[in-house]
Design goal:
single chain, mainly alpha, elongated
Length: 99
């Protein structure tokens, strides 16, 4: 049941992401959803393994704050990495494939 709440929260983050993160054509619209869901599920699993209980507020605070932060950093990293790869590929094309 708790993972369903995390999945719903990830969906809300994915809906809000285009308004918070500058839009880019270098990644798909579902990337923020995938990142948020993955981070939330893995973090929930790790915190449960470390002994956090579901009834306590700390596990919820950590997961709910880490998901948007991780999504923001991951999408920005992916965008900059793909921009660098596109620049390199365009430079190869300009040089006629000799780079």
């Amino acid at each position: 049941m708790e993972l369903l709440v995390i999945a719903i929260y990830a969906g809300i983050l994915a809906l809000v992401a285009p308004f918070v993160i500058p839009p880019s054509g270098r990644y798909g619209k579902l990337v923020p959803l995938g990142v948020a869901t993955s981070v939330g599920a893995v973090l929930w699993l790790l915190l449960t393994w470390f002994g956090f209980r579901y009834e306590e507020a700390w596990i919820w605070f950590v997961v709910m704050l880490a998901m948007p932060v991780a999504t923001w950093f991951a999408v920005r990293f992916l965008d900059s990495k793909r921009e660098a790869e596109e620049t390199l590929e365009l430079e190869k094309i300009r040089l006629g494939g000799k780079a």
